[in-house]
Amino acid sequence: MPRTALKLRGYKGANPFHEGQAKAFTDRKLIEEFFPTSTFWSRFNEQHEILIGTRGSGKTAILKMLSYSWLRRLEHERASVIQKEKNFIGFYIPLHLEFIASLPGQGCPDEQRLQYFQFAFNCAAIKALLREIGALLVDCYPDPQRRLNAESQVLGHLCELWFPGEKCELNAVSDLQWKIECLYHTQLF
Amino acid sequence: MSAVPPSFLILSDIHFGAFAVTKDFALATNPPKHEMRGAVPMKEALITKVISTVKEHGAALSGILIPGDLTSIAAPGEFQGSVKAVEDIASALNVARKDVFFTFGNHDVDWRISAMSQTDEKDPLYNVVAAHAGSLFAFTPPTEVGPVPGSGVFVRDSYTIFSVNSGYHCYKDQEYRHGKLGNDQLRWLAEMLSKYAAGGFRMVMVHHHPFKYPFATVVEDISSLEEGAELVDLIGSNGVHIVCHGHRHEPKLFTEMRTNWKHSVTFLCAGSVAVNEHHRNRGEIPNLFHLLFMDSQLTCGAAYGHVASFQYRSATGWVPTQHSASTPIDHIQRFGILADANQRRIAAMQLVKEALERAAKGDNSALLPGLNALPPELQCMFVHELNNLLNDIAREFGARLFGKYPDEVLIKH
Predict the structure, then answer these.
(1) CATH number for region B7-335
(2) Average pLDDT of every residue of chain B
């Protein structure tokens, strides 16, 4: 009986195992390759849940796909319903090893470490939230004029929260993401 | 002129062979030295991207321009492989073989043959043989044959291409490495530009750049064309619309005008389709291809159109270019209008004023026109500079903008 593996001989396409972890996947790759199971759909609830799994078991893929901006791109009836109802707006805050490693080490006083973690976590959280806000604005306001008006209001509020006393001259949610990114990388602890 | 303006795929500096980044553009027997593995197949993805983009633009490709450096070291197998790769692309894009236009660059002179001119025989004709190697493989019969391989005039319904070979004199013993046309080609080109004065959009294809371009650090650019000044004068005074060249692997698109020129001329310096990162500022510049769409001829005679540029990413294939210091070109870059800062400012002020008038009649906000509906002098700006200009002007009027071009933009009092 011919071995199935032999069919791979001479294969010239892209290496399907090039990226081993969902954190490095492109959005398109994740969405195209994600297969939702009933377990996945039952995660859309109001309970606290802890997702446990070995490296590569799909935790990040699930968390990303629970987020509104990824889910809305999944071609699935249940995804469309969740997107339409908007009772569950998930957002994914990446706290990968590189992030943890960037935090101050043992030599740093505990109080300062905590402060730094809070600051860094807030930056990561708002960036993730802004991604979802961007997607929500697009879905909620098909009319560009209404959407941009809503975006200007959201921007105004968030700028006031993050940069109080500073005149907000940003044009878009993406500008605020960039400003927070700059803040994160220039903050000296 | 034909009612349908032409559009072209530009594949420059392929460097088929050892200097390529992928097996798609190298011989199986001599794979690339710095091969990118496990990546999205470059050639297939390019075809897919061109098909979808041309469809989005509602156009049909008129031809493919290959402005030199088809190969890495001008080996016969590299020429054959490079031409075969281009022919595969042309076939998949329904471009007739007669509409694939080649010229040669410095890498297309076989230095192993050229070196023989320095042996005991001291026979300089080995240099000529070395520079003719490419024409055995990359040849499209021209309407008018030029004095050297890679030179010729190609007359079509809506356009005429004047091709010159600036790599012809790039022999192994060239005193310093640079492009050179030589008197024969220059004289011939002058004659042809005058003979084929009509004929829709007029384009010159050459490998080396006729101007010196700055490097990241200040050093003398000696690699440009020896007769650059003469070529540019010929081009301007003979009403050429577009000059398309390669060589430096750094994309540029700009329009120039001089006192004695018939009209402005747009210069497109294409990036490299497939050369490895060592030849792209250590990877700082991506692999690129461009689609050139001619839209119309302005009343002054200059060409108005746009270039769609794509950069390659190993994980996702060809994606729209992102403007940066090393890739100073927008994904969709309009060209053809020469406007000074004051003219651009006046156009932008008018735009903001009209939008604010509309806003005053409604809820104090109004959408600005889409990018394609803006005055041409604004469309031809880099989009980030356009956004900055409009922001400044909106502030002067006590208003603010939300959103950014190329997407929707709202103005609010």
Answers:
(1) 3.60.21.10
(2) 94
